[in-house]
Every structure is written in structure tokens, then in C-alpha cells.
Design goal:
The chain has 10 helices and 8 strands. It has an 8-stranded parallel barrel with strand order 1-2-3-4-5-6-7-8, surrounded by 5 helices. Helix content is 46%, strand content 16%. Strand 5, helix 6 and strand 6 form a beta-alpha-beta unit. 43% of the residues are buried. Helix 1 crosses helix 2, helix 2 crosses helix 3 and helix 5 crosses helix 6. It is globular and about 45 Å long. The protein has 261 residues and is α/β, with parallel strands linked by helices. (6S)-5,6,7,8-tetrahydrofolate binds next to strand 1 and strand 4.
């Protein structure tokens, strides 16, 4: 399971303030703590914290890679952010994200090839976020075909079925889980599958419980990566246990500590 730490995001008030005040300590502390808690990659997202998103992203990338060697996942809604951020980053980046719309694929697939990056692709198309399982699978197929045409192998893609808050649309988690199960059948080797886990519990109480329950169900359906909060120990424990029960790790009485080591 690839754990992508979600905490370096301008959506969080502490990060927003750190970006505005160029406070390195706050960002580097979040980077170190997430890696120590088990994140192998860190999502980096300026959000709406800055009027100059390119400068802010460059500062976040430099600041984060100074503190940790985990992989960075460059997350932005603004296309002009990617080229400079990918130039500045020294490791193998993850680009977050393209949609399945053709003009988005025509921008991001060559960009991923140029920078030897992996690419997260949301199952969104010209008409927005689909509500059915079938539409998600259809868009995923389009993404895989386009990637093949550009020469990007399926295993460098992370297909994201788009998790929406359960408080808003209660039938969606079931479709997301069913879609995860089907994405794996679309190519050989299969693409990776990722979700933004915390989306599910926005505007809910019991956030941690809702997040970790979806995580466990997702893993059972074939999810192999998640943007999540690794500082949530109960969630990490649930993830480790789910992988144990699916025979991905060896059982011993101290399996939690064994995994952490
Ligand atoms: N897919 C992909 N990338 C993504 C998402 C996705 N990137 C952004 C997001 N979704 C994943 N990251 C977060 C980060 C924070 C929250 C949710 C998803 C979150 N934040 C608090 C809130 O909105 O309530 C912020 C408030 C606070 O606690 O300060 O929930 O789906 N590919």
C-alpha cells in the first residue's frame, strides 16, 4: 500500500499560515512526522493559500525535499504550476492529477513522460464527475488507451475513482468500491488505484472512523494507494491489519510493530 501523506495542503489552516509566512519549520515538521508515521510519499498542494501559486509551490517543494527523501506528489488545479515544480524536484515525481478529458490527457501524458513521473488520473470527463460505476470504468479505459497511445505504461498510472463526501451522496461509496474492483481488470499489468480518502468524511463527525472503514473496504477491493493522514494511528493500524488479513504481510503476534519497523 502506497501511503501518500495529505497534510501539506493549503486547505489546512496551519499549512496555509506557513505558506503565507514562509515558515519552513511548520512544513518540515509535518513532512518528517508523516514520513515517520509511514508515508512513502507526500502530497504537496498550495490550495488557495497564495496569490502566487507557482512561487508558493516551488517554496513547498524545496522546503519539503530539504527535510525528507520521501517521494513528492505535486497536487494542483493550476497547470502552470507543474513544469517549474517538476524541474525543481530531484526525485521521481507523482503528478496529481489529470482527468480523463482529452485536452487534459494531451497536457499531462507528455508532461509525465518528459519528467519520468507517475501520474494520478481522475475518472472525470468533459461532463464532470460520473455517478455510476460503469461511467467511472469507461473513463478509466479511455485514460489507459490514451496512455498507451502516448507510450506511458499502465503501471505508471494511478486511477482515482473520485471519492465524494458520504454526507452528500450516500450511494457513491458503493460505486467507488465497485469501480476499484473493475479497474484492475482493464490492463495487464494493472494500473495502480488511488483515492483521496479524507474526502469521504468532509462535513461529517466520526471522520477518522469513516475514513478508516472506507480504507479497509477499498483495500479489500484492490486499492493500492491512498492520499490519507498517516498521523491517524488508528487508520494506519486498520490499513496494516487489512493487508495482513489479505495475506500481504506475514502474521506474528506483534504484526503492528513488525510492520512499523
Ligand atoms: N484525489 C486526488 N487528489 C486529491 C484529492 C482526491 N487531493 C486533495 C484531496 N482530494 C485530498 N486531500 C485532502 C486534504 C484534506 C482534506 C481532505 C482531502 C480535509 N481537510 C479539512 C476539511 O476540509 O474539513 C480541512 C480543515 C482542517 O482540518 O483544517 O478534509 O480525491 N488525486
Amino acid at each position: 500500500m502506497l501511503v501518500i501523506g495529505e497534510r501539506i495542503n493549503g486547505m489546512f489552516r496551519d499549512v496555509r499560515r506557513a505558506i503565507q509566512g514562509r515558515d519552513k519549520e511548520v512544513i518540515q515538521d509535518l513532512a518528517r512526522r508523516q514520513v515517520e508515521a509511514g508515508a512513502q510519499a507526500l502530497d504537496i498542494n498550495v490550495g488557495t493559500a497564495s496569490a502566487e501559486p507557482v512561487e508558493a509551490m516551488l517554496w513547498l517543494v524545496e522546503t519539503t525535499q530539504e527535510a525528507v527523501s520521501a517521494r513528492l506528489c505535486i497536487d494542483s488545479a493550476k497547470r502552470e504550476v507543474f513544469e517549474p515544480a517538476l524541474e525543481a524536484y530531484k526525485g521521481r515525481p507523482i503528478i496529481n492529477s489529470t482527468t480523463g478529458a482529452q485536452e487534459s490527457l494531451d497536457f499531462f501524458l507528455p508532461l509525465a513522460l518528459k519528467h519520468d513521473a507517475e501520474l494520478i488520473a481522475l475518472t472525470i470527463d468533459e461532463s464532470g464527475v460520473p455517478s455510476s460505476t460503469e461511467a467511472r470504468v469507461e473513463i478509466a479505459m479511455r485514460i489507459l488507451v490514451a496512455a498507451m497511445e502516448y507510450g506511458l505504461p499502465p503501471e505508471t498510472l494511478y486511477i482515482d475513482p473520485v471519492v465524494l463526501p458520504v454526507s452528500a451522496l450516500q450511494d457513491q461509496p458503493g460505486h467507488v468500491l465497485a469501480a476499484i474492483g473493475q479497474f484492475r481488470q482493464l490492463a495487464s499489468p494493472p494500473p495502480h488505484i488511488v483515492v483521496g480518502l479524507s474526502n469521504i468524511s468532509q462535513n461529517s463527525t466520526e471522520r477518522s472512523l469513516i475514513n478508516r472503514t472506507l480504507l479497509v473496504m477499498g483495500i479489500a477491493h484492490g486499492l493500492d494507494a491512498a492520499l490519507m493522514d498517516p498521523l491517524d494511528t488508528e487508520m494506519m493500524d486498520a490499513m496494516i491489519t487489512a493487508e495482513l488479513l489479505l495475506n500481504k504481510n506475514l502474521y506474528c503476534d506483534s504484526f503492528l510493530e513488525a510492520y512499523r519497523r
